[in-house]
Amino acid sequence: MQVFKFGGASVKDAENIKNAASILLQYKTSELLVVVSALNKTTNALQDVTDNYYGQDNDPFAVLDRIKTEHFDILHQLFSDPTHPIYNEVANCFVEIEWILEEEPQDSYDYLYDQIVSVGELLSSKILAAYCLQIGLPVQWIDARDYIVTDNTYREATVDWAITEAKIRKELPSILDDFIVITQGFIGSTSENFTTTLGREGSDYSAAIFASCLNVEDVTIWKDVPGVLNADPKWFAETELIPELSYTDAIELTYYGATVIHPKTIKPLQNKKIALNVRSFLHPEQPGTKIHTTNQTLPIPSFIFKVNQVLINIQPRDFSFIVEDNLSHIFNLFHIYRIKINMMHNSAISFSVSVDDSGENIDLLLSDLEKRYKANIERGLELITIRYYNQETIDRVLVNKKIIRELKDSYTCQMLVSNLNE
Ligand code: ASP
Ligand code: MG
Predict the structure, then answer these.
(1) Residue nearest atom 2 of ligand 1, based on CA coordinates
(2) pLDDT tier for residue 94 given thresholds of 50, 70 and 90
(3) Positive or negative, the Cα torsion across 118, 123, 126, 132?
(4) Is 38 close to ligand 1, i.e. is its CB under 6 Å away?
(5) Distance 221 CA to ligand 1 centre (A)
(6) Which whole number is the average pLDDT over 321-325?
(7) Do 148 and 162 form a contact (C-beta atoms < 8 A)?
(8) Probe residue for ligand 1, chosen from 11, 41, 43, 195 as the CB with the greatest number of ligand atoms within 8 Å
(9) pLDDT on residue 422
(10) Looking at the predicted structure, is the pLDDT value of residue 319 above 80?
(11) Mean pLDDT, range 148-169, rounded to an integer
(12) For a Cys staple, 185 with which of 40, 62, 157, 206, CB 3.0–4.6 Å?
């Protein structure tokens, strides 16, 4: 049994949906569950709908109409029969959102976000399933919310693995005997049947959840890159494909910010020794990268760049040291404002961290920190991580940069830098 995950880019338009279906056609005899993300950019656009509705400033319907047009344009290209039931199914998904928008917002932002944004995956999975049926593939669409059960931390829900596993194992194996199952990434549901989402880019994680509960042989994530590369092509003209990767290296790379796979994806697969392939949907004949149990360390140094970093420097107001009770208070504030620490540095009298610049949240955090500590920030920095570094790789990335903080262990070097040109 296998799990495939198609990301937003792999289903972004009619041509790509056809391409995804043609990949499925090659696997039609094996037991296969397919997890799909929303069409490219749809999640961001649905977030704009939520923001406009919640803020009551701009018209949420205008953005929604644009999303609708995009989806119906794709339908027209895929289904020539205007009475095909998919037209109604897609229209009904949009009606769900319109019902919400017609009322004054009463609920929390995070709750509304999940109810609105989750529709992106319902749409893409329905369209892909209908197209597969049209070309003769034996597929069955299922609602991931009937299987993935979470707590009610909207926008970042935690999966209840025991209930989820029981539900998946009870019903899905017999469906998978006869059909390719197509379902949504990113979404789940509380025990009271309210829709939740698992965090941005969470579809990879959904694939891992289904894979782990079904004990499949392997998972394949189909992407618009040839596999896991040693750096993002956005930063380096010459990148190299890493053909084979241990789970540990994959966890480390994604932890430090490699965006090729969602960081939560790997651990559940590692626990069950399920291999994870990252392959190109544009070149399905190529093997891509295989992440599995191997003693093979990364054959080449890997680089991860994170721009838009803020350095937050925290010092006690009195002459005390930074000790455990300060740290637990500080960490709790980061947790409350949902700010993820990318690098931290602790000395006797100060504690400093580098985080993504998420704007408003940082300002709120800062004003809370200032009640107890001296806190200052420096914006516009870059965090460079090199896994399996050496001096040559460090010199290579430091051209025109100044090091502000540096952390090294035997395998990984992290440098927070500012640009000398600015
Ligand atoms: N559509 C969601 C997002 O863009 C989930 C995903 O793509 O993995 O965050
Ligand atoms: Mg995505």
Answers:
(1) 201
(2) very high
(3) negative
(4) yes
(5) 13
(6) 77
(7) no
(8) 43
(9) 63
(10) no
(11) 97
(12) 206
Ranges 204-218, 320-334, 354-368, most confident: 204-218
Instruction: Judge whether residue 239 has pLDDT over 70.
Output: yes
CA of 144: how far to CAs of 22, 101, 249, 291, 340, in Å? 23, 24, 30, 25, 28
Q: Quote the pLDDT of residue 208.
A: 98
> Which pair of tokens denotes residue 299?
């054959």
46 Cβ closer than 6 Å to some ligand 1 atom: no
Q: Residue 251 Cα, ligand 1 centroid: separation in angstroms?
A: 19
Residue 404 reports pLDDT greater than 80: yes
DSSP codes joined into one string, 101-137: HHSPP-S-HHHHHHHHHTHHHHHHHHHHHHHHHHTT-
Q: Measure the CA–CA gap between 372 and 58, rounded to whole angstroms.
A: 38
Q: Are 201 and 155 in contact (CB under 8 A)?
A: no
The reply to whether ligand 1 has any atom less than 6 angstroms from the CB of 185 is yes
Which pLDDT does position 310 carry in this prediction?
Answer: 96
Q: Whose CA is nearest to atom 8 of ligand 1?
A: 201
Ligand 1 atom nearest 199 alpha carbon: 9
The structure tokens listed for 264 are 């939560």
Name the pTM for this structure. Answer: 0.91
Rounded to a whole number, what is the distance in angstroms from the first to the last CA of the chain? 53
Q: Each residue of 301-315: pLDDT tens digit?
A: 999 999 999 999 999
* Domains in the chain, CATH or no CATH each: 2-216 (3.40.1160.10), 302-419 (3.30.2130.10)
Query: What distance in angstroms lies between residue 34's CA and the mean position of ligand 2's atoms?
Result: 15
Alpha-carbon Rg for the chain, nearest whole angstrom, is: 23
State in Å: Cα 359 to ligand 1 middle: 21
Q: Is the CB of 186 under 6 A from ligand 1?
A: yes
- Among all bound ligands, the one having the nearest atom to the CA of 186 is 1
Position 64 confidence tier, pLDDT thresholds 50, 70, 90: very high
Distance 39 CA to ligand 1 centre (A): 9
CB distance 200 to ligand 1 below 6 Å: yes
Judge whether residue 29 has pLDDT over 80: no
Ligand 1 atom closest to the Cα of residue 7 is 7
pLDDT at 284: 95
Both structure tokens of 27: 């696997």
